[in-house]
Amino acid sequence: MDIDTFRNDPLWIINNRDEPFILFFDETNNPRTFRLTEKGFNSDTRDFFILGGIGFKNEKALKNVSTDKLFEEFKLQQNSTEIKFKHIRRGAENFIDLMKSDRVRIFIEWLLDNKLVIHYSFTDNLYYSIVDIVDSLDDSAIMNWGFNREVKNSLYLLAKENQTTFVKLLIEFDYPNIKSHRLFIEKVVDWIESVNINDDFYLEYFRQVLKSYRTKELPFLKDNQDDILIGDYSLLYWRSLSIFKNATSKLDHEFNIEKYLKKDPLTSNRKKLENYLFEDSKNDKFIQLSDLILGILRYWLSFLDGRSVEEISNVFGQVAYEEKLSLYKLQRVMNQSLNISNGFKHGIGSNDIEKKINFFLEYDFNVDKGNVSNN
User: A single Pfam family, by name (predicted)?
Assistant: First the structure.
């Protein structure tokens, strides 16, 4: 697979993408295949797939960082062969409780003090699965990229709020392999009309356009496998390895991805890309630490996804000072990472979740900055 065409796409304008970063990867919430079952989905749609971890600006920065003191402060049992997120979670059931963990606090401070970067790509499975309905419309019908995103966002929020009835509709037609496009379109049109009680403009526009497709086919919803919504998550791997082609990337073993890369290797200027390797996490502490940050990000995205901006703001306003300080330090690590490269944050998700992520990144936690390292 040639990556140069992909990298030259105007949508992938990434600053500092050619720098020799050292990136470590793990993943979380990987159902391998996301599909429809007789009862719904095979995986909870609230569990975003996330690929990412920690990283360094270059080899010199990597050599200047030691994990010895950090692992000593974790105070793990002597029979522990590697550290996992469960070891620092300390039984926390949600993101705010996670910020109360002393091990999480120690880890976030270590990231900040050592100027490490956080990089991540996520996929909202429900969003990814249904946007082909919108993308099947002609460009002239959906206006522009921004309008397209708003239509997708409204459809996603409606499907999320009325998931039971929407999923029944998808199951009925073996989505995304539609055989009767006319009947499917009629059912979607009727469904939107029945549940769009707030008379959302984008939904009504989409419904009216969709009505004109009764005599057409939705091109992205044919010649697919019945009920297979996401065959695998290789796209996020391809993206990360392609965008940062001059980085050295070390990934925890994921044998399906390794198989695909071996079968169809990444190439640049007709040469095989050799910028990555797969490693057993037991042999690499930085991959282990990537598991920790992904665990934190998993809780973070779940927290944001399950609340409105107003509810998020209310929670932040009520947390105790120590948790607020940890939230601020996590926010600072994220923002410092994005200042190095905006490519360290990537998501296949709705405008709604992007709005909440940006709210977190810009929120004023009103803490004493003197309690935070200024390195």
Answer: DUF3800
